[in-house]
Amino acid sequence: MRPLLEAVRAHIRNGRLYEAKEAAARLLVSPPSAAASVALGRALESAATGVEGRLVLGLALREQGRPGDAERVLRDALSQQPGRAALLLELGNTLADLGRRDEAIAAFEQAVRAEPDYPLAHFNLANMLREAGRLDAAVAAYESALRLNPAYAEAHYNLGVTLQNQRDYARAVAAYRRAAELRPGHIGTWVNLGNSLRDLRRREEAAAAYRAALALRPDHDAARLQLAFVLRDQRQFGDAEREFRSLLQRAPDDLGLQELLGELLRLAGKAAEARAIYQAIAARRPDHPEALAWLFHLNSLACDWRDRAAEVARLIEVTERQLAAGQRTGLSAFHAFALPIPLPMHLAIARTWAAETERAAARDRADLHFTDRRARGDRLRVAYVSSDFRDHAMGHLVGGLFRAHDRAAFEIFAVSHGPDDRSEYRRRVEAEAEHFIDVASLSDRDAALLLHQQGIDIVVDLNGYTRDHRLGIAALRPAPIVATYVGFPGTSGASFIDYAIVDRVVAPPAEAPFFSEQLVYLPHCYLISDRDQAIDDAPLTRRDFGLPDDGFVFCCFNANYKIEPFIFDVWMRILRQVPGSVLWLLQLAPEVADNLRREAAARGVASGRLIFAGRWPKAKHLARHRLADLFLDTRYYNAHTTCSDALLAGLPVLTCTGDNFASRVATSLLLAAGLPELVATDFAQYETRAVALAREPATLRSLRERLQAQRLTCPALDTPRMVRDLERAYRLMWENHLAGQPPRSLTVPDGDPP
C-alpha cells in the first residue's frame, strides 16, 4: 500500500492529477477494502495540496463505482474552493452517475461560469442538456465548446447527434463531416453521417458514408443494411440484393431480412424469386401477415389460383386478427381492393395505414405547425402531388389536366416526387403545368415546407396508398385544404385528408360513413381522362396479333391480378356459347399464359382460344383496341384507366356494377359516356348480354357508332368539361374554408360544357 500512497502524493505535488487518480484507483482495488480507502483519504488530507487530493480521491471513488462517496469528498473540497471549475465538473459527472440530472446540469453551469474557457465543461453541460431533452440549449453548449476547441472531434459528433434528433439534417451532416475529418476511424460518425444524408435524400453521398464505415469494419451489419436501403432507393437493385444476401449469410434465420429481400426482389421485377422468399417465410410462420399478403398478390399477378381459396381465407383471417389488435395490416389498403372485403373492413384497413403515416409525421407536424391562411388571393393555388407524372396510368389520365385549367382563376402546381422517366408524359406535364416542382430529392418535411412557402391553398394527392406514395407530405398539412383524387379508389382512412373527390356512382351518399373524408360529388364521372392522347394510325390486322379474321374477339386489357376464378368462369361460359370466339388478354408476367390456358382447359375451353398480348407503347396499344369487338370487365377491381382507354379507342366495354368504389368505376365511365346498356346489374345479366352482343352484330355496331360519335364530347372523355367541374369543386372547398366551416359534403352543380 505504501508505494502506491507515495506515488499518489508525488503525482499530486507535480500537478499530475489524472496520474494520481489512476494510482489511487489501483490502491482502492488492491486490496479492495474500506481500510485502503481510509488510508488513502488520510494520506491525501495530509498532503500540502489538500483540495487536489480530494479531487483525486473523488475521481478514484467515482471510477470504482462509488459515486455517493465521491460526492461527499468533492463537496468537502468545494467547501474550501467553491469556484474551482475542475471540482464542479467532477461533481457534475458524479451527480450524473447518481441519476440526479438537474443537479448535474446546475454543477456544469457553475463550472462554465467559473471558467468560461473550459471546453470540457461546455461539452459535459451539453451532453446533460441533450439527455434532458433541452436540445436547443445543448446545441448552443456544444457550439461554445467548439469555439474554444475547433478540433474537439467528440463535440462535433455529439453536436451532429443532437441536430439529427432535431431533424436538422443539413447541419448534422456538416457536424459529422468535421468529426470524420478529425477522427476518421470512428465508425459511428460515418453511419450517422449516412443516416442524415439518407434523410436528406442525398443517396449517393449516403452510400459513400456507409461504405466508409464498412471499410473500417466489414461486419458492421447496421451500416450494410442502410447501404442496402439506399441502393434500393436508387433502384440499383442488383447491388442492393448483394448487400441483403450478404446480411442473410450472417443471419440466415432473420425473418425481417428475408422480408426485406422479398420486397427488393418484387421491386426488381423478380416475382418468382420473391414468391419463393415469401413461401419460405410462410413455411416458418404460417400467420406472417406480410408474407401471406404478398404471396396472394404475386400469385394473382401470375394468375396462379391453385391454392387461392385457402390463401384468401388465411389472409382475411390474419387481417381481421390484426385489425382487432390495432396493428397496421400486412394486407395493403390498395391490394385489399382485389378481395371480397366489405366496406367497413376497407375503412378499417385504411385507418391502420393512415395511423402509421400519422405517427411518422407527428413530430415534424408539431414542429412545423403550419397556420392556415384565410385571405382570398387573386387566384386559387392548387398543387397536384404525385409520383406518377410519367409513363404510368396516372400520367395517362391527367395528361390534359394542366393545359385545360383556367389560369386567370387558378395557379396550378404539379409537384412530382417520382422518378423522371424522360417520357413524353413527363415532358408534357412539365411543359403544361404553370409550375412544375420536383421534390423527389426532398424529405417529406422539406417538401411540405416548400408547398407552404408557395402559399398553396389546396393540396390534391393523386397517389393514395399506391406504390411510391408520399402521403407523409399531406400528413404535415402544408395547405389549409388537403384532398385526394383519382389515384386511390377508396377511402384513405386519414384524419389529415379533408376531402375525397368522387361521383355518386362510385361513392353513393349512403356509403359516406365508410369514408374518413368528406365527399365532394362531381356531376358526372369523377375519373378524368385525356381525350387528346395520340392513337397510332399505322394499319394493323388481326393476324398481326394471332387473332382470327372472322371470329368474335372478346378482350380484357386489365392488369392480370384483377382476373380471378369467378370472372374467369363467366368468361369461359361466354366463350363456350359463342363458337369461334377468342379472349384477348394482356400478359404481364411470364407464367400468365400457361396458368390461364390450364384454367381454360379445366373449364372445357381449348387453350388456343386465349390470345395474349404484350406491353406496347400507348399510342399503338390504343390502336390495337380497334381489332377487338367487346371489352369484358373484371369483378372486384374493374377497369379504370383501361376502360377510359377502350372508350377513347371506340371499343365498347361491358361491366357489372360492384359493391365498392373500385368495382364501380367502369359503371361511372359508361354512364357518363351515354352507354347504360353496357352496365349489368349482376353477372347473370353480364353473361347473357355478352353472348347477345356477340350474336347480334347490328346491336353491337349501333353501340360502336354511338360511342364513336360522342366519345370526345361525352362527360366521360371531355377533358375541358371535367376540369371545369374540378375547378367548381375547388371553389366550393375554398369558400367553405373562408367561411370558417369544417370540411363538409359538397355537391358540384352541373355546368355547361366549355
In short:
This protein is an alpha/beta fold and 754 residues long.
Amino-to-carboxy terminus distance: 102 Å
Bin the helical content: 40-55%
Tell me about the largest β-sheet.
Answer: 8 strands, parallel
Query: Average pLDDT across residues?
Result: 92
Poorly predicted runs: none
Inertia-based shape: elongated
Label the structural class. Answer: alpha/beta
Number of distinct beta strands: 14
CATH topology of the domain at 542-717: Rossmann fold
| Count of alpha and pi helical runs | 33
Radius of gyration: 34 Å
CATH architecture of the domain at 542-717: 3-Layer(aba) Sandwich
Spatial ordering of strands, largest sheet:
3-2-1-4-5-6-7-14
Superfamily (CATH H level) name of the domain at 542-717: Glycogen Phosphorylase B
Q: Supply the CATH class of the domain at 542-717.
A: Alpha Beta
Beta-strand percent range: 5-15%
Task: Outline the structure in words.
This protein is of the alpha/beta class and 754 residues long. Among the domains are: 370-521, Rossmann fold (3-Layer(aba) Sandwich), CATH 3.40.50; 542-717, Glycogen Phosphorylase B (Rossmann fold, 3-Layer(aba) Sandwich). It has 33 helices and 14 strands. The chain has an eight-stranded parallel sheet, with helices on one face. It has a six-stranded parallel sheet with strand order 10-9-8-11-12-13, sandwiched between helices. α29 (641-648) links the parallel β11 (630-632) and β12. α5 packs antiparallel against α6, α10 (153-165) packs parallel to α12 (187-199) and α17 (271-284) packs antiparallel against α18. It is elongated and about 115 Å long. The termini are far apart. The model has no long low-confidence stretch (mean pLDDT 92).
